[in-house]
Input
Amino acid sequence: MKTAILFLIMLLVLVIPHEWGHMTVARWCGVKINEFSVGMGPLIFKKKKGDTQYSLRLLPLGGYCAMEGEEESIDSPTSYSSKTNLQKIAILLAGVTMNVIIAVIAVTIALCVSGVVCNTLDSVQAGSPADAAGLKAGDTIVEINGVRTDTWDKVVEGIGSYDGGDPLEVTYERDGERYTTSVTPEMSEEYGSYMVGIVAGTTRDFWTCAKLGPATTWELNKSLIEGFKMLITGGVKRDDIAGPVGLVKIVGTASEYGLGSYLMLLAIVSLNLAIFNLIPIPGLDGGKIFFILLKIISGGRINDDMEYKATVVGMAVLLTLFALITINDVMNLFG
Output
């Protein structure tokens, strides 16, 4: 039950902001929104507000924002079809943008929950070069050889710059005061590098985590793009692919490791949706943007009828892909 609830929460967090992004930018562009739906399939609940019907549907596997003139050309100033190409692209990109924003927020909160390594020392090994230099747990290393070290990575880089020559000049803060000491790193036979015998502490400071949130999200995004490349080239095994059914199991596993792991998974899935939506397959946002660009390049030789036929084929491909992934999920589930 807990896993099912967490899975539904994840879907809602992914779907509602995505469609809300489409709806908000569409309204800014003067497009009428006929329906904003959470879920697909049979209608459970609806409420009319202004010109828009807000709906809740049975299957929580998606949602949509139905804009006037989205599927067919309508001669109306409030229709999607009457808007400029730039406005249409902005509307289509709004959903993906919201998925990226959700990922950044989720990663930032996850870092606040789990903590991130920082330049404040958790401990100093007895008898180590750092211990001999007078460093203690709680000290914050702010400079090494005059170079600012406001993150743990910078501290590691500073120690790594030692070449066996003069000692490192380490500036640190203790009880609000700054001090400078000399530290001579020792070569570690185990790790094959110079070390001083310090262990990083962790921080849950919001501003520190907020600064790392976008950077960490970008690193996740690069890894996911590499994954998509491997998927195309055949470098990913069938068992490594998961759809909605497989995601339920993954959500359950992530939740066992705490809120931070669950939020990181949410960020990964949100980025996955953003990347997938940008693929130029008819039926996806990326496919619609692709056809807008084709119409511009072709000078109008690519018409709405061609796009409609391509969209039908694209949706058939997507549904087939969804079915195959679901079958694969079930096979993996029962192992």
